[in-house]
Amino acid sequence: MKIVWEERGSGRPLLLIQGLGYARWSWEPIVRGLAERYRVVFFDNRGIGESDKPDGPYTARDMADDALQVLDEAGIERAHVLGASLGGMIAQELAVAAPERVDKLVLCCTTPGGEATVPMPPVTVQLFAEAASLSPEVALRRFVENALAPGAPGRLVEELYRRRLANPPDPVGWPAQAAAGMGFAGVNGAIAAPTLLLTGTEDNVVDPRNSDVLAERIPAARVERLPGAGHLFFWEQPDAVVRIVTEFLQ
Questions:
Q1: Which pLDDT value is given to residue 96?
Q2: CB of 124 within 8 A of CB of 195?
């Protein structure tokens, strides 16, 4: 499997794992700040960007193995791991499958999987139902708007929309990644790594209460809420994210 990755900065390694439909470019708002203290490694998941796009469906465990491959190729024995949305599910699998490779864990806007998951907010369920009847460009804009908090600045909507148009989802990779998220039933084992759970209070994609469910399942985990932030809070409040993550990892 060819997984394309890059790195910035120096210091303790920090691996970033992105979610459904977003390639490594989408970490830009926080990479510079994190790279001031850490060796930040980030990559395109299978199914997107410059990485291979095999036929699906994928599983979160498959994609966790890809993350381990990146660590191996980078020569990293142990790293902090931060995963967002589907990336948070992948990060959970990684923390259970290879606990010796994970130092501290940051789970952003993600779910515990299975029956414990608080269902997707109705506004997003409705958007998925309507998307097939919309033109691709209109549907894409609606999904960008929905991933941000209500009333997000127009310039931010336009920037993300432009970037998504320039990096369209792969017709094979997108549904295969989506299957990994839909099929995630939770990890088969305990997460031992010290864990921070980050969520935006206005997340319309993953109900923020999922972070509380995860906190009950992970010993000594704690939840940090970003007031007024949506699902893509690392684009909306990058300085706050860098500060909170850095304080936790230190």
A1: 98
A2: no
Q: For residue 118, give the DSSP letter.
A: P
CA–CA separation, 46 and 195 (whole Å): 25
Based on its alpha-carbon atoms, the radius of gyration of the chain, rounded to whole angstroms, reads: 17
Query: What's the one-letter identity of residue 219?
Result: P
Element (H, E) at 7: strand 5-8
87: which residues sit within 8 A by CB, 6+ positions away?
16, 17, 18, 19, 45, 108, 110
* Positive/negative CA dihedral, 2, 147, 31, 106: negative
Q: pLDDT tens across 94-142, in order?
A: 999 999 999 999 999 999 999 999 999 999 999 999 998 999 999 999 9
* CA–CA dist 202, 17 (Å, integer): 22
Q: Which pTM does this prediction carry?
A: 0.97
For tokens 């990644």, what's the residue?
177
